[in-house]
From TrEMBL:
Protein's UniProt keywords contain Mitochondrion: yes
GO molecular function: NADH dehydrogenase (quinone) (non-electrogenic) activity
Originating organism: Rhodamnia argentea
Localization in the cell: Mitochondrion inner membrane; Peroxisome
The protein's name: NADH:ubiquinone reductase (non-electrogenic)
Domain FAD/NAD(P)-binding per the UniProt entry, residue ranges: 59-390
Domain External alternative NADH-ubiquinone oxidoreductase-like C-terminal: 424-490
Length: 494
């Protein structure tokens, strides 16, 4: 059993690699003497992270693991700060390539980047942590956030509530899909914002293909099962429609020959598709999508039932798969926070991305917007906006720490430098069949370069390949693209 004793010794050594600071953790209230003050006792109701001491590194708490929060954590100086991330997911989603995973062009792991790879200190530094939890409340007066662990369904452990003290708090909770109050959307449609959404779309699509080939299925039911409806003509909806049409033309027609004439795609948009793009590019996209077999319908959805959509003109659209991609808005939790709001219900920030009415709270990404008093418009909910805000705020907080303002309530007199300025770098979207759109104008009214076709497709793929966070995932994406080109998409698994 010598090998077993060696294994125990190695395990003990590994367990001591990451020491903890006991003074940083709350203990149950019963463990404290009655001499503790009411404020001190109140924050010790649950286990959690206690306020940092004057000799400790200040703590930055980041709520969310999207583009903004992850870019912030990547840029923070972990020699100056401890970093604590609270999020219901332990990875960042590379959303521009998410539509490709729905039809097997890419595998799901290619677009999911673990938080620990983005900021290694979270996995190794003594005072830095990731908590799989959601924030349930913010107490600005006591510099405290209330959290609740994320559990897996009703049969798992009860959620555990705890508190975390912060020196600096960054709210980067993103946004949620907008349903515009339309009945039935939440119950019947699939959104396309997370990896599990893409997994559900892929599962449903392949299941419907197989069910439609079963003997005895009526012609009407077969057409319904194989009717894929996308609501929303923005970049995500158009890219998914393009990927789906590619999948149908290159893979379904070969591997599901018995039902190849029944499957089709409908894209419903209330106005014009890709409204932020150049007019010439929109016309080109419309032409190419139509040529690929995508039916474009201009209409407003009034109601969504289990097997059909009802439009405002009274017409009905049966479907087997419904993907909802109509934009985003603030989550109910963001709306509930007792913080100033910008137009549209986002958390209001000033030119330095601070929430001006409270100390040491910042907001970035889709959950934030400039206050009307700044005279700046609310920025669009784009990945490049969130990423640039995260990078800017990381540099700002690093500068604050160097100036001695990292601790709570210690940065009031510190100059923050230049305010945040956003310059749009352009927009891109793929439309299938080795074609894409590249619009490099800084705004819809400005003049600039706009391209369409195969060259744009090369630019689109090259740009996103370089933007993938890690070399590991860049390798996965490149290999997936090559494999798909050579042998087609992987459609054998549900």
């Amino acid at each position: 059993m010598a090998w077993f004793r060696s294994f125990i010794q190695v395990s003990k050594i590994k367990s001591s690699v990451r020491p903890t600071k006991p003074t940083h953790f709350f203990t149950p209230l019963s463990h404290f003497s009655s001499a503790a003050g009411p404020a001190e006792a109140a924050v010790r109701e649950r286990w959690g992270l206690a306020p940092t001491g004057p000799d400790d590194k200040p703590r930055v708490v980041v709520l969310g693991s999207g583009w903004a929060g992850c870019r912030l954590m990547k840029g923070l100086d972990t020699k100056a700060y401890d970093v604590v991330c609270v999020s219901p997911r332990n990875h960042m989603v590379f959303t521009p390539l998410l539509a490709s995973t729905c039809v097997g062009t890419l595998e799901f792991r290619s677009v999911a980047e673990p938080i620990g790879r983005i900021q290694p200190a979270i996995s190794s530094a003594p005072g830095s942590y990731f908590f799989l939890a959601k924030c349930t409340g913010v107490d600005p007066d006591n510099h405290m956030v209330h959290c609740e662990t994320v559990t897996d369904g009703s049969n798992s452990l009860e959620p555990w509530k705890f508190k975390i003290a912060y020196d600096k708090l960054v709210v980067a909770l993103g946004a949620e899909a907008s349903t515009f109050g339309i009945h039935g959307v939440t119950d019947n449609a699939i959104f396309l914002r997370e990896v599990h959404h893409a997994q559900e779309i892929r599962r449903k699509l392949l299941l419907n293909l197989m069910l439609s080939d079963v003997p005895g299925i009526s012609e009407e039911e077969k057409r319904r099962l194989l009717h894929c409806v996308v609501v929303g003509g923005g970049p995500t909806g158009v890219e998914f429609s393009g990927e789906l049409s590619d999948f149908i033309m290159k893979d379904v027609r070969q591997r599901y020959a018995h039902v190849k004439d029944y499957i089709h795609v409908t894209l419903i948009e209330a106005n014009e598709i890709l409204s932020s793009f150049d007019d010439r590019l929109r016309q080109y996209a419309t032409k190419q999508l139509t040529k690929s077999g995508v039916r474009l319908v201009r209409g407003v959805v009034k109601d969504v039932k289990s097997h059909k959509i009802i439009l405002s003109d009274g017409s009905e659209v049966p479907y087997g798969l419904l993907v909802w991609s109509t934009g985003v808005g603030p989550s109910p939790f963001v709306r509930s926070l007792q913080l100033p709001k910008s137009p549209g219900g986002r958390i209001g920030v000033d030119e330095w991305l601070r929430v001006p009415s409270v100390q040491d709270i910042f907001a970035i990404g889709d959950c934030s917007g400039f206050l009307e008093s700044t005279g700046k418009p609310v920025l669009p909910a784009l990945a490049q906006v969130a990423e640039r805000q995260g990078k800017y705020l990381a540099e700002l907080l690093n500068g604050v720490a160097k100036a001695g303002g990292g601790q709570a309530n210690s940065s009031k007199e510190i100059a923050l430098g230049d305010p945040f300025v956003y310059r749009h770098l352009g927009s891109m979207a793929t439309i299938g069949r080795f074609k894409a759109l590249v619009d490099l104008r800084q705004s819809k009214e400005a003049k600039g370069l706009s391209l369409a076709g195969f060259t744009s497709w090369i630019i689109w793929r090259s740009a996103y390949l370089t933007r993938v966070v890690s070399w590991r995932n860049r390798f996965y994406v490149a290999v997936n693209w090559f494999t798909t080109f050579v042998s087609g998409r992987d459609i054998s698994r549900i």
